[in-house]
Specification:
Blueprint (H helix, E strand, L loop, with lengths): L8 H12 L2 H9 L2 H12 L2 H17 L10 H23 L27 H11 L1 H8 L3 H12 L4 H8 L3 H18 L17 H15 L3 H7 E10 L5 E3 L1 H10 L9 E9 L2 E9 L7 E11 L2 E9 L13
Parallel strand pairs: 1-6
Antiparallel strand pairs: 1-2, 3-4, 4-5, 5-6
Helix pairs in contact: 1-2, 3-4, 3-5, 4-5, 8-9, 8-10, 9-10, 11-12, 12-13
Family: Belongs to the sigma-70 factor family. ECF subfamily.
Keywords: DNA-binding, Nucleotidyltransferase, Sigma factor, Transcription, Transcription regulation, Transferase
GO molecular function: DNA-directed RNA polymerase activity
Length: 334
């Protein structure tokens, strides 16, 4: 993920575009970095729509600051620097409007969290290899427990693999400050991600396992057949469940989770005609749930259930209410 070394042909062409004011060439050279910059903004913000907006803001700032590019660093590095600082500015404003809770425990949720569609992840295989552990919901939530600049340091150093000096330059900090911030950030991440792999830069795979595909199919089949016992059998008895944008993650037994869904009106007559579509978000298996009511001829988008599967059981289920939201390219009706 690093890009050290002298300016290559892209940088030379980019500098020529800057000198000539060639907006078309400028856009062509920056646009090829859109997907990876958008993932970077998402890791910083945990919100897909905000990440889209901040990526666009990055390109706008890049154009306005184009004369500052001297070719001493790679174009990619320069854009990451701009994106990181755009996200920090955004977080300063957002945190000013919405105070951060004093006690951010491991069970705290992120109310603005949104899933990230896999089809928008970088197409470069090297980018995809690094993506899974650092794009899964648990990682994204854990990172939000860090103060913004610690968050930026962790992502630049431990996810992107930047050296301390490069991260310090991007954030206008000293190397000692970056090193200290990284140490504190790693302690928090270990607390938040207990039992999970923390070596984020080692090779991994973005593909779902056979277990994950099988459990996802069984989960969707149980929904469509209103098989409550089947659903219970798929859930771990210490299930971590969240339904966003409602606040809070709860740990419940499998039976209590299903009983709660029923008491909320689901799986009862009139709310028991399901169709499900398999997808992946955040490199995780997900079921898109559609519900048809007696007075409606069509199945309508209800929510996205994102599953974290451990040893053939659903250990974490994060639901996103997408009622009446044609979102992530999903059809609003079936």
């Amino acid at each position: 993920m690093t890009d050290v070394g002298p300016a290559d042909a892209d940088e030379a062409v980019f500098m020529a575009a800057v000198r000539s004011g060639d907006t078309a060439r400028f856009a062509l050279l920056t646009e090829r970095h859109r997907r990876e910059l958008q993932v970077h903004c998402y890791r910083m913000l945990a919100n897909y729509e905000d990440a889209q907006d901040l990526t666009q803001e990055t390109f706008l700032r890049a154009w306005n600051k184009r004369e500052s590019f001297r070719g001493h660093a790679a174009l990619r590095t320069w854009l990451y620097r701009i994106a990181t600082n755009a996200c920090l500015d955004f977080l300063d404003k957002r945190n000013g409007r919405t105070p951060t809770p004093v006690d951010l425990s491991a069970r705290s949720e992120v109310p603005h969290l949104q899933p990230y569609p896999d089809q928008m992840l970088p197409e470069d295989p090297q980018e995809s290899v690094v993506a899974r552990e650092t794009i899964e919901l648990a990682f994204i939530v854990a990172v939000q427990h860090l103060p913004p600049r610690q968050r930026a340091v962790l992502i630049l150093r431990d996810v992107l693999g930047w050296p301390a000096s490069k991260a310090a330059d991007a954030l206008e900090l000293t190397v000692a400050s970056v090193t200290s911030a990284l140490q504190r950030a790693r302690v928090t991440m270990r607390e938040q991600l207990r039992g999970r792999r923390l070596d984020w830069r080692s090779p991994g795979t973005g593909e779902l396992s056979r277990d994950e595909r099988a459990v996802l199919r069984s989960y969707m089949d149980a929904h469509e057949r209103n098989d409550l016992d089947g659903l219970i059998s798929l859930l771990r008895d210490d299930l971590r469940f969240a339904m966003l944008p409602d606040p809070g993650t709860v740990i419940v037994t499998a039976k209590d989770a299903v009983d709660g869904w029923v008491s909320g009106g689901l799986f009862r007559p009139g709310h028991d005609d399901w169709r499900c579509v398999a997808t992946t978000v955040n490199r995780m298996p997900a079921a898109v749930l559609y519900l048809r009511t007696p007075d409606d001829p069509r199945y309508r988008l209800l929510n996205i259930a994102v599953l974290h599967i451990v040893d053939g059981k659903i250990a974490e289920l994060t639901g996103f209410d997408v009622t009446d939201k044609p979102w992530l390219g999903l059809p609003p009706t079936l």
